[in-house]
Design brief:
By secondary structure, the chain is α+β, with helices and mostly antiparallel strands. It folds into three domains: 160 residues, Periplasmic binding protein-like II (D-Maltodextrin-Binding Protein, domain 2, 3-Layer(aba) Sandwich); 94 residues, Alpha-Beta Complex (Dipeptide-binding Protein, domain 1); 221 residues, Dipeptide-binding Protein, domain 3. 26% of the residues lie in helices and 20% in strands. The chain contains 15 helices and 23 strands. Strands 17-16-18-11-19 form a five-stranded mixed beta sheet. A four-stranded mixed beta sheet has the order 1-8-7-6, covered by helices on one side. α13 runs antiparallel to α14. The radius of gyration is 23 Å and the shape is globular.
């Protein structure tokens, strides 16, 4: 591939057209822009561009105060008092300073929303907080109910207190906010690098620079458009036609990358999270998933090396727990050993299923008390290759997988509906916070626990992460998680991204935590 010569210094101007989920996952539509009310990674992608974080987490999982609204967090000697000092330089796009009142507004909205807030209870917000006090316009004091692990509380808790424009939003009730999830006027006041320009349901979102952005990295491009393309294959053809300049190259089409003229290939990730087969533990038709022996058998039946070779063309890493392996900052010694050795052992899987009382029927599928060892797996569009390989691997040890493709939003709606106990299994992924504990996803009765999994021992181990400084508590929790497999964790693949040759600054645009930062991208001219 030949490369044209571009200017060595960044240039301003131009439009970047891309897709939701770029550098992170298969595409889907954006459906709302209120970060207090939405949990989709695609919606979050736009929201993160509109509102500057209280704490900007860098690729080394440290706080970068140069890009944070906060300029310092001072931890008290008993790890119960956290004093947050705000920079005085940040302003909303209407000229009003960003102050402690905006941080307090966010906290009180979380209290008001309760479990309706997507991150409720993760990072100890609000359950670990005894009091949040505005000391002065640029200082907030948070007092916890007990001593907490300060690194965990800062990276997973305090960083949720993103300031939102209290002087505008406090005029609305929660119901009114729900009604204005896509109302451009509601989101006119921002402090991030971009603001919404237009939203066309089912088609695209257009964002333009916040001309009054007070941060250090003002956007170079004059517009970013997120086109809603609903299948990975369609992304390939949009790249080929030039309809988008930046997008994920679907792994199945990796061999056809030479057809994308005028582009270059880069890899991002793996995503800071975990891929998995998740089960509905409340569905009586798949009660077998409540048996750890069955779940362990599934783990040992899956050849992760083969999945990486076929699905990721060798660009991927094994994963058996909820703590990502790359970078390995939070991995326990036991996790590192398991990752190096692998867990593929179909003979052991057969032995575990025999021990659990499941024996092969005439068609090879295991039976117990008249029930077949089978489940129906929901999968998003364009992801059939992975589940097909998994179904073949599980069939070899006597487990039947039926596959049903459904739109991503429909899968999420069914899983998150507390009255729906009919779905059985999903092929999905979960993004982690900077301190990777899984939040309340696996906590008994947790607000994010759509799987209805419950283990008192896992809850106790999780709680110790909150109170014990250092990594030992996290090590014990992740080791028990790997042993129990409440979801069957799958390997993490790198994401292939195709970018037009004239795009620069891409290295800073993609974060290990999965965020996309187009303010660092500039478009060169030949």
């Amino acid at each position: 591939m030949s490369c044209s010569v571009f200017a060595a210094t960044p240039q301003y101007g131009g439009t970047l057209t891309t897709i939701p989920g770029v550098g992170l996952c298969p595409p889907a539509a954006m459906n709302g822009f209120n970060p207090l009310l939405t949990s989709s990674a695609f919606d979050t992608e736009a929201e993160d561009l509109m509102y500057q974080p209280l704490l900007w987490i860098n690729p080394q999982f440290k706080i970068d105060y140069g890009l944070s609204v906060a300029r310092a967090v001072v931890v008290g000697p008993r790890h119960r008092t956290f004093t947050i000092h705000l920079s005085k330089g940040w302003k909303w796009s209407d000229g009003v300073p960003v102050t402690a009142a905006d941080v307090a507004y966010t906290y009180h909205m979380i209290l008001k929303l309760g479990p309706k807030y997507p991150g409720y209870a993760s990072g100890g917000i609000p359950g670990e907080v005894a009091a949040l006090t505005v000391v002065n316009p640029y200082e907030i004091r948070v007092v916890t109910r007990r001593p907490v692990n300060p690194v965990w509380f800062e990276l997973s808790g305090l960083n949720q207190l993103v300031p939102y424009p209290a002087q505008v939003w406090n005029k609305y009730s929660v119901n009114q906010m729900y009604d204005r999830m896509t109302n451009l006027n509601f989101f006119r006041v921002v402090d991030g690098p971009f603001r919404l320009e237009s939203f066309h349901p089912g088609r695209y979102v257009s964002m333009v620079p916040n001309r009054r952005f007070s941060g250090p990295d003002k956007p170079y491009i004059h517009r970013v458009i997120f086109r809603f393309i609903h299948s990975p294959a369609s992304v390939f053809f949009a790249l080929k036609s030039g309809a988008i300049q930046l997008g994920n190259l679907p792994a199945p089409l990796y061999p056809a990358r030479h057809q994308l003229k005028g582009d270059r290939l880069l890899t991002t990730g793996p995503a800071w999270g975990f891929n998995y087969l998740g089960f509905n533990f409340d569905n009586p038709h798949i009660a077998f998933v409540r048996d750890p022996l069955v779940r362990q058998a599934m783990m040992h039946a899956i050849n992760q090396g083969l999945l990486i070779k076929i699905l990721g063309y060798g660009y991927g890493v094994r994963a058996f727990g909820l703590v990502p392996g790359v970078p390995s900052a939070f991995l326990s010694p036991e996790a590192k050993r398991l990752l190096s050795q692998g867990a593929y052992d179909p003979a052991l899987a057969d032995e575990l299923l025999d021990r659990a009382g499941w024996h092969r029927g005439s068609d090879g599928i295991r039976m117990k008390d008249g029930h077949r060892l089978a489940f129906t797996l929901y999968l998003p569009p364009g992801t059939i290759r992975g589940p097909t390989l998994l179904a073949d691997m599980l069939a070899k040890v006597g487990i039947k997988v039926r596959m049903r493709e459904k739109p991503f939003n429909e899968i999420v709606a069914q899983m998150s509906d507390p009255s729906n106990r009919h779905w059985q299994a999903v092929y999905s992924a979960w993004s982690q916070s900077a301190y990777p504990t899984g939040g309340s996803v696996f906590k008994c009765g947790g607000t994010q626990n759509n799987y209805h999994y419950c283990s008192k021992k896992m809850d106790a181990l999780s709680d110790k992460i909150r109170t014990h400084p250092g990594l030992q508590a996290l090590y014990k929790f992740q080791n028990y998680f790997t042993e129990q497999q409440p979801v069957i964790v799958l390997p993490n693949m790198k994401i292939f991204v195709e970018a037009a040759l004239q795009l620069h600054g891409l290295a800073r645009a993609f974060s290990p935590l999965g965020s996309f930062n187009p303010q660092f991208i500039w478009i060169g001219r030949e």
